[in-house]
Write a structure and sequence with these properties.
This is Putative cell wall binding repeat-containing protein. The protein is α+β, with helices and mostly antiparallel strands. Among the domains are: 31-91, Ribbon (left handed beta-beta-3-solenoid), CATH 2.10.270; 109-179, Cholin Binding (left handed beta-beta-3-solenoid), CATH 2.10.270; 286-415, 3-Layer(aba) Sandwich (Pathogenesis-related Protein p14a). It is 17% helix and 31% strand. It has helices at 2-17, 290-306, 316-332, 345-351, 372-378, 381-387, and strands spanning 29-33, 39-43, 46-47, 50-54, 57-61, 70-74, 77-81, 90-94, 97-101, 110-114, 117-121, 130-134, 137-141, 150-154, 157-161, 167-168, 177-179, 185-188, 205-206, 232-233, 245-250, 265-268, 271-274, 286-288, 313-314, 359-366, 394-402, 407-415. The strands form nine sheets. Strands 20, 21, 24, 25, 26, 27 and 28 form a seven-stranded mixed β-sheet that branches.
Length: 416
């Protein structure tokens, strides 16, 4: 508990130190302070807009070029920029409540693992303490938020919690809060923090649906449960205007071996289907970009061979699942690893009986060139890490053209 508290405290100390970055950096690129005391950053004669990395720190500038501080929302993810404007990762304390932002700066909800200790964050991202019920299972979190195991006295009950944190035995403690599978509060004995209430004066919304150019960038980080087989690996992807990319990796502990099923999927003309998965609607006309898929694989394998890695082979099952994912995002109008029904790609693989030792997913879109999806992934550290991961030997690349909305949607699904 003490170590966890110290880690958080140290993380907050760094905030003040970054204020020194607000100094002129030269003629061609420099900070400017307006009469209203807001900061902007100019390159040449133009103010920067969106995310910008300056001296190894990330900053966000709104549509007018003003640097934002506090909580801001971009591409569906929440980020926290301190008083110097520098984006924060790791533990962040705001108005007495702890939050956790992954390596990309995106605020996490649900279960997270920090230094081999589990914490639970509600839908607003607020760290929980006490006895909580989530997914129908009861856990105990100490005052530092750390999940407890072993024998714990709660009230007048001697309770036992298994190594995965779940209560066992006959002594069941009363729950302080109850959450559903999407981390929303079902019942509560005390008010819950609302993310929208934190830093509202500094909040900027930039939803990907409102972007008229090639799109937006986001990423998925740690979204795990203590009793789950899967761990979603965080990336270092930072939102960046002009691209639409998102990545996530998972390392199951099941110990299963790869069993590629070649005849489980089918593709028929301009429709995509996977046997065992729900039939997708056909609201938007699509076109499968098989030549772009092959070209992206060629470009990717060139990079891997140059780096001394073995090339990836196109796996038919992963190919169809990747196409299914791209079409699913088109038909249901979303852009996320989490599907509208709460499932993810590895749930689909499990449903169709595809086994693996590790798997990952990259997704992206643009409105001008299907092969350019490769460069979007390649120029993003987190996505590039998936593509250059030596442990993967199979890939599925699904590129679908949305004829109605003039959009190329791409998915890469990796496994070994």
């Amino acid at each position: 508990m003490k170590n966890a508290f110290l880690r958080k405290t140290i993380g907050m100390v760094v905030v003040a130190a970054t204020i020194t970055t607000l100094a002129p950096l030269g003629v061609s690129a420099q900070w400017k302070q307006s009469t209203d005391n807001t900061w902007s950053y100019a390159e040449g004669n133009k103010n920067v807009k969106g995310w910008k990395k300056i001296n190894d720190n990330w900053y966000y500038f709104d549509s007018t070029g003003k640097m934002k501080t506090g909580w801001l929302k971009d591409c569906g993810n929440w980020y926290y920029n301190d008083n110097s404007g520098s984006m924060k990762t790791g533990w962040v304390k705001d108005n007495g409540t702890w939050y956790y932002n992954d390596n990309s700066g995106a605020m996490k909800t649900g279960w997270i693992n920090d230094n081999n200790t589990w914490y639970y964050m509600d839908k607003s991202g607020a760290m929980q303490t006490g006895v909580v019920k989530t997914g129908g299972k009861i856990y105990s979190l100490d005052k530092s938020g750390a999940m407890q195991t072993g024998k714990i006295k709660i009230g007048n009950k001697d309770c036992t919690f298994a190594t995965n944190g779940e209560v066992t035995g006959n002594n069941i403690p009363n729950c302080d809060r109850d959450f559903d599978k999407t981390d929303n509060t079902i019942t509560s004995d005390q008010p819950q923090n609302d993310q929208n209430s934190n830093g509202t004066s500094n909040t900027t919304t930039n939803n990907q649906e409102s972007v008229s150019n090639s799109g937006t960038t986001t990423n998925s980080g740690t979204i795990t449960t203590p009793n789950s087989d899967t761990t979603i690996n965080s990336s270092t992807t930072i939102p960046n205007s002009g691209t639409a990319t998102i990545n996530s990796g998972t390392t199951p502990n099941s110990g299963t071996t790869t069993n590629t099923t070649q005849d489980i999927n089918s593709t028929n003309g301009d429709t995509v289907s996977v046997s065992g998965l729900n039939k997708l609607p056909q609201t938007y006309a699509i076109s499968i970009q098989s030549s772009a898929e092959n070209k992206i694989l060629e470009l990717l394998n060139q990079k891997r061979v140059e780096a001394g890695l073995k090339p990836l082979t196109m796996d038919n099952t992963l190919l169809q699942v990747a196409r299914y994912k791209s079409d699913c995002m088109i038909q249901y109008k979303y852009f996320d690893h989490t599907n509208p029904d709460g499932t993810k790609w590895f749930d689909w693989l499990k449903t169709i009986g595809y086994t693996y030792n590790a798997t990952a997913e990259n997704i992206a879109y643009n409105t001008y060139d299907p092969v350019e999806l490769f460069n979007q992934w390649w120029n993003s550290p987190g996505h590039k890490a998936n593509m250059m991961n030596a442990s993967y030997n199979k890939i599925g690349i699904g590129v679908i053209y949305d004829k109605t909305n003039n959009k190329y949607m791409g998915t890469q699904t990796f496994s070994n």
